[in-house]
């Protein structure tokens, strides 16, 4: 059952496949039927396929037969009608042949007459053609004659136009004549002659503009300067009356616009007419100094000759060479401002000419070419200015150079050239200008400080008082109430330095003019430069004065007073800068002046120098000390050297009345401490191996003199007994030995409230050993062959015992 179903399914599939192949054979081109038949033979049922194919063929034959039977009667009717028409057509042909024969016989005379007429017309046409040819040749000859005349009179552009008309309009009409061939052969020679003459004119033009570049640039910069002055006048004065005319452009309107292909006349040179300015004297423009007509003519000629590109390349190549020559600065340019001015004039003149050519010709130079030249010029100019300006040490020359560069940039900016890099370079020169200013002001400050007498300024009249107050902001109601003559607390270098700082600020402000900087940028620049002036230049000048070897205490005291007043004046300098820049100090990015720090540092250096100077003076007095450490006499007065030293200190501290209290107190305390330390070293120095109690008593008198000086209050402001503490170490040491209070010292040692708290065991032992050596030496001399007396032996034992205990304290302290 299943096998029967499978066989039935396979037969259905085979039938369907055969049906598909038959449809494909019916619908496929005969040339492409091979693959289809191959698929039949590849199968196993090709016998059955052949049966189906024959069945299909029989079906198609039956359909063809039916169709032929249907159309047979119409075909028979058409053949019958065609046979009838053939007879009628033969009759028509016979009639036409007969009519033609009659017509040929009747028209024979007319044909003869027409042939005669044809010959007449041919002769007439030949005559007319001859006249026309002659009419064509006459203009050619006239044009050629005109061409020769134009060549003789050197009117080359019209000659070129005539030649063009002759070649393209007239000669082609008569080109087959022999005389025309002669003309045609001569045309290239005429063109070359015109090209050579125009090129010679161009070379003369290039030489002319090379010579006149300096003058052209000078003229353009004068025009820019006049325009800037006019703008400044307009900004400063209210506009009243009639409106003034101003220049519309750096190079103004053209009288006639130059067409590159058809100039109006031979003399048309494209020269610009400068409009009258408001000035009575008109400044000539580039077109008034150079005749541009040769370049226009040469451009037109080469354009007509089809060699415009050659001309453009030659012109640009030559101008590039000239540009490189112009941009090469002279080696000594930095020596004078005229060197820079000539250099700038040549550059401006070059680009004014190129800009004029750009706007008066169509494509001889384009914006890309101009920009390329300008980029090269800008880079070389900036490099040259950086190199040469670095040699300049005169701030006035740097300032003049800056103004010249600004004018140079403004002039070229009017012509559309970007000059931002020049202004960026001016910011670099600004730093150099600041450095030259700082060097100049270093010399000014040095001269002021060297020439100052370091004494308060005396005034004897109200006029002198107001003059000083006008130079330096100072207010003191007590000084104003005092009668004349009176003195300012500061010396002359204070108002001089203050005014020089203001002059420096003005100098910085001058450089910032016309740099297109905002008020904030100008303010920041001035403040930074002023900070450098204060923190570096003025600070170094003050430090050099303070560190001089021959500087005295009086001068140092005056320097402290002067720097104190200069420090107070810093707020007025802040206000001064704010007034000239209109930038409030509360602005976020405003730089603060560091003058306060500068003057504080200088004052601190002067204070340290005072302390050092005082100590050196004390050391000089101590070198005069001549103690007899072996004396047995008890003195009743202090040593002479110490009395002189105390007198010096009193007179010195009397000068300190104008100093701030803290400075005077510090100086006094420092001097007392140094004196106490030096006296201690004098007492304990290793060279003094022995000393007597009598010498110790004399030393005690000197220390009492020092303590009396400290109690007298040489400088006000000390609390009670504060200054005496400088000598406390000496006082306790001397009391211990003079009172011979060793029991108290040894018993209370280490206690916070002990009587001899400031006595170091090492110091006490050193001094005790010196006294012990002296006692032993004296006993040996007095009792060379006898035993020591009992009290001397007891005292020596006591000294040995104390020394032993002191060594024990020292060793226990170290452990």
Automatic annotation (TrEMBL):
Keywords, ordered alphabetically: Coiled coil, Exocytosis, Transport
Residues annotated as domain Exocyst complex subunit EXOC6/Sec15 C-terminal: 421-770
Gene Ontology cellular component list: exocyst; plasma membrane
Record-level GO BP terms: Golgi to plasma membrane transport; intracellular protein transport; vesicle tethering involved in exocytosis
Pfam families, sorted: EXOC6_Sec15_N (PF20651), Sec15_C (PF04091)
Start and end residues of each stretch annotated as Disordered: 257-280
Entry-linked InterPro entries: EXOC6/Sec15, EXOC6/Sec15_C, EXOC6/Sec15_C_dom1, EXOC6_Sec15_N, EXOC6PINT-1/Sec15/Tip20_C_dom2
Family designation: Belongs to the SEC15 family.
PANTHER family the UniProt entry points to: EXOCYST COMPLEX COMPONENT 6B, SEC15
Protein name: Exocyst complex component
Organism: Leptonychotes weddellii (Weddell seal)
């Amino acid at each position: 059952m299943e096998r029967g179903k499978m066989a039935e399914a396979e037969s259905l599939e085979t039938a369907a496949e055969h049906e598909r192949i038959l449809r494909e054979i019916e619908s496929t081109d005969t040339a492409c039927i091979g693959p289809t038949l191959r698929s039949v033979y590849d199968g196993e049922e090709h016998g059955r396929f052949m049966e189906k194919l024959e069945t299909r063929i029989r079906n198609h034959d039956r359909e063809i037969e039916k169709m032929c039977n249907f159309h047979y009667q119409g075909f028979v009717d058409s053949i019958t009608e065609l046979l009838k028409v053939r007879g009628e057509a033969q009759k028509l042909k016979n009639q036409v042949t007969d009519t033609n024969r009659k017509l040929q016989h009747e028209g024979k005379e007319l044909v003869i007459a027409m042939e005669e007429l044809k010959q007449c017309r041919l002769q007439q046409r030949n005559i007319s053609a001859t006249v026309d040819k002659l009419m064509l040749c006459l203009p050619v000859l006239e044009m050629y004659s005109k061409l020769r005349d134009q060549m003789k009179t050197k009117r080359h552009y019209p000659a070129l136009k005539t030649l063009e008309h002759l070649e393209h309009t007239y000669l082609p009409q008569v080109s087959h004549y022999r005389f025309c061939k002669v003309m045609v052969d001569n045309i290239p020679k005429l063109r070359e002659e015109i090209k050579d003459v125009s090129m010679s004119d161009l070379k003369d033009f290039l030489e002319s503009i090379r010579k006149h570049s300096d003058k052209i640039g000078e003229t353009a910069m004068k025009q820019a300067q006049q325009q800037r002055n006019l703008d400044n006048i307009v900004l400063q004065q209210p506009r009243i009356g009639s409106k003034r005319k101003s220049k519309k452009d750096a190079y103004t309107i053209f009288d006639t616009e130059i067409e590159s292909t058809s100039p109006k006349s031979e003399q048309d040179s494209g020269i610009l007419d400068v409009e009258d300015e408001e000035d009575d004297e008109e400044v000539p423009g580039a077109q008034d100094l150079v005749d541009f007509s040769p370049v226009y003519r040469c451009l037109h000629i080469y354009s007509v000759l089809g060699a415009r590109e050659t001309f453009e390349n030659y012109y640009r190549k030559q101008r590039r060479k000239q540009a490189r020559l112009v941009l090469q600065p002279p080696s000594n340019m930095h020596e004078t401002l005229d060197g820079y001015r000539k250099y700038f004039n040549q550059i401006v003149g070059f680009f004014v000419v190129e800009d004029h050519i750009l706007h008066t010709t169509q494509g001889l130079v384009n914006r890309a070419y101009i920009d390329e030249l300008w980029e090269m010029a800008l880079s070389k100019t900036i490099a040259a200015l950086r190199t040469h300006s670095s040699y300049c040490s005169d701030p006035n020359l740097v300032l003049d150079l800056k103004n010249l560069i600004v004018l140079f940039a403004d002039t070229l900016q009017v012509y559309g050239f970007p000059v931002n890099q020049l202004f960026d370079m001016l910011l670099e020169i600004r730093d150099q200008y600041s450095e030259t200013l700082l060097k100049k002001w270093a010399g000014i400050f040095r001269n002021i400080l060297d020439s100052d007498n370091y004494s308060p300024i005396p005034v004897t009249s109200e006029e002198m008082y107001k003059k000083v107050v006008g130079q330096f902001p100072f207010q003191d109601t007590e000084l104003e109430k005092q009668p004349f003559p009176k003195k300012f607390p500061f010396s002359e270098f204070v108002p001089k330095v203050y005014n020089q700082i203001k002059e420096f600020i003005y100098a910085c402000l001058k450089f910032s003019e016309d740099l297109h900087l905002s008020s904030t940028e100008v303010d920041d620049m001035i403040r930074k430069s002023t900070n450098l002036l204060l923190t570096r230049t003025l600070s170094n000048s003050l430090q050099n004065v303070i560190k001089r070897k021959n500087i005295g205490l009086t001068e140092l005291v005056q320097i402290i007073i002067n720097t104190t007043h200069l420090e107070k004046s810093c707020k007025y300098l802040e206000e001064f800068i704010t007034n000239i820049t209109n930038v409030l100090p509360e602005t976020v990015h405003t730089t603060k002046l560091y003058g306060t720090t500068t003057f504080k540092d200088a004052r601190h250096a002067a204070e340290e120098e005072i302390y050092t100077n005082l100590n050196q003076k004390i050391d000089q007095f101590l070198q005069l000390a001549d103690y007899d450490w072996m004396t047995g006499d008890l003195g009743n007065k202090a040593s002479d050297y110490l009395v002189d030293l105390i007198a010096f200190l009193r007179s010195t501290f009397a000068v300190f009345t104008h100093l701030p209290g803290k400075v005077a107190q510090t100086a006094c305390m420092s001097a007392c401490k140094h004196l106490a330390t030096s006296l201690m070293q004098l007492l304990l120095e290793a060279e003094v191996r022995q000393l007597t109690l009598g010498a110790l008593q004399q030393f005690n008198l000197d220390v009492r003199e020092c303590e009396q000086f400290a109690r007298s209050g040489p400088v006000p402001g000390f609390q009670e007994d504060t200054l005496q503490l400088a000598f406390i170490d000496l006082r306790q040491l001397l009391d211990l030995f003079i009172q011979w209070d060793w029991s108290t010292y040894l018993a209370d040692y280490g206690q916070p409230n002990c009587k001899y708290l400031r006595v170091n065991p090492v110091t006490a032992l050193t001094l005790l050993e010196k006294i012990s050596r002296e006692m032993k030496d004296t006993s040996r001399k007095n009792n060379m062959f006898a035993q020591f007396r009992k009290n001397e032996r007891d005292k020596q034992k006591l000294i040995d015992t104390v020394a032993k205990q002191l060594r024990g304290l020292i060793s226990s302290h170290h452990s």
